Amino acid sequence: MSSITGVYPVVATPFTAAGAVDYDAIRAIVETQVERGIDGVICFGIAAEFYKLTDDERRRVVEVAADATAGTATDLFVSVTDHATRLAVEFAEFAEASGADGLMLLPPFFLGPSESAVLAHTRRVGEAVDIPVMLQYAPVQTGVSISPATLSDLAASVETIRAFKIESRPPGPYISSLLETAADIDVDIDVHVGYAGVAMLEAFDRGAVGVVPGASISDLYRDVVDHLRAGRRSEAVAVHTAMLPLLSFMIQDIEGFIHYEKRLLEAEGLVDAVHAREPAFHPDSHTDARFEECLAALAPHRV
Asked: What sign does the CA torsion over 151, 156, 161, 162 have?
């Protein structure tokens, strides 16, 4: 399978004032990523409120995004978040049949399944499809810890598991260990860094090849990656440094990140307004004021 590298933003889930999923806005967000030349988009994820969507809504989102990316150079990855293995396999097969180029798999975590149960679930999903799978490792959010050696063995035993999104805190040492253990058993993997890309410079220094951020300022992440690929480290550092106050502010709280991600998308004209399904984040004037200060630092770096 080809490498999975570059910027793969998670597409937020906009809602209307009445609380319905705004599929037109989802299409607009995805089409904007295509226009920006972003490597891929991911539907669903922890910061895309998968836990607030019905099964029918998730399937419709996949269909809309698949149509928007069809025939383009932008990959569509679809998150598989179902905790029941049977349901996860069914949704993975649906995503592949709908035109997804890959999957992002969040292993089950509710009620603390054993590592063997998590691995069995992951293998079943990976073996059910022919498209590449990016495994999402988010121990802080899920409470499930897996060793780098175990993930490397998983990639060695399941052909479709080709990439990992690492969101441990900090991610750097884990990324190094994961790449080292994979190299020891001669298996090629692609590592992406999550958590809004706060640590993406260090992650790339350690061997990561991609980042999974939000979609609102994906053009800036693309600029950082382009600079790094071209050996322009000082330029990459300058852009990323300008991004850090905003990213650090937003990532304090996942529901807060979702709120301000939608605020950024609203400013771009991609969503009509910031709506969420409760429970949701509701900032006060002090929080909003700090958001505006952080956002102002980005102005010189955006066209």
From this structure: positive
Report yes or no: 62 and 98 within 8 Å, Cβ to Cβ.
yes
Element (H, E) at 181: helix 172-184
Residues forming a β-bridge with 10 = 42, 214
Contact by Cβ (8 Å): 136, 77: no
Eight-state DSSP code of residue 214: B
The CA distance from 140 to 256, in Å, is 17
Q: How is residue 254 written in tokens?
A: 């996942």
Q: What span, in angstroms and rounded, lies between the C-alpha atoms of 44 and 52?
A: 10
The single-letter code of the amino acid at 33 is Q
What pLDDT digit, counting tens, does each position of 18-56 carry? 999 999 999 999 999 999 999 999 998 888 999 999 999
pTM, rounded to two decimals = 0.96
Give which of 133, 148, 147, 257 is closest to 195, Cα–Cα. 257
How many Cβ atoms are within 10 Å of 145's Cβ, its own excluded? 11
- Residue 6 Ramachandran class (φ > 0 left, ψ -120 to 50 alpha, else beta): left
Domains of the chain: 6-301 (3.20.20.70)
Report the distance separating Cα 155 and Cα 146, nearest Å: 13
- The secondary element (H helix, E strand) that includes residue 224 is helix 218-229
Other beta carbons within 10 Å of 93: 14
Task: Determine the 3-state secondary structure of 266 from DSSP.
Answer: helix
Strands (E), 50-108: 75-80, 102-105
Evaluate if residue 214 carries a pLDDT over 90.
yes
User: What six digits make up the tokens of 40?
Assistant: 């891929």
Q: Cα–chain-centroid distance for residue 71?
A: 22
Residue written as token pair 């972003």: 38
